[in-house]
């Protein structure tokens, strides 16, 4: 085999390995829709994120859609990015990227349930549902 072909093969394999989304066990998850359990910590305990949630993996990128038990959240901030409620007036649902399963994520939820909006800090951990 020529050196250029070997280099191209290894470059392609590296890109494929680096672009795959892995579960908490380190195994790559292929493109598809998965059910994930949500561990939730923070806030006052009045609102929760419903579990399980839906995780979609496409081209090595994972996006989770979460729904709150309260319709009073208008946005979430995840990794410095603001995500608006996908279903205002009905529920509080948000879709945002997840870098890794089994790793705690710091997020902020903005609740409008009180006399004025409040940003509340939470910690979320997603794991494959069994």
Question: Could you characterize the architecture of this molecule?
Answer:
It is a single chain. The chain has 130 residues and is mainly beta. It has one helix and ten strands; from the N terminus they run H-E-E-E-E-E-E-E-E-E-E. It has one helix spanning 3-18; strands at residues 21-22, 28-29, 32-42, 53-58, 61-67, 73-78, 81-84, 93-97, 105-111, 118-128. Strands 7-6-9-10-3-4-5-8 form an eight-stranded antiparallel sheet, with no helix packed on it. The chain has a two-stranded antiparallel sheet with strand order 1-2. A hairpin with a 2-residue loop joins strand 4 and strand 5. The radius of gyration is 18 Å and the shape is elongated. The termini are far apart.
Class inferred from helices and paired strands? mainly beta
Which residues form runs of ≥5 with pLDDT under 50?
5-18
Q: What does the overall shape look like?
A: elongated
Helix content percent band = 10-25%
Got a strand count?
10
Fraction in beta strands: over 45%
Order of helices and strands: HEEEEEEEEEE
Q: Roughly how many Å is the radius of gyration?
A: 18 Å
Number of helices: 1
What's the N-to-C terminus distance?
Answer: 45 Å
- In spatial order, strands of the major sheet run 7-6-9-10-3-4-5-8
Give a short account of the largest sheet. Answer: 8 strands, antiparallel
- Report mean pLDDT, rounded to a whole number: 86
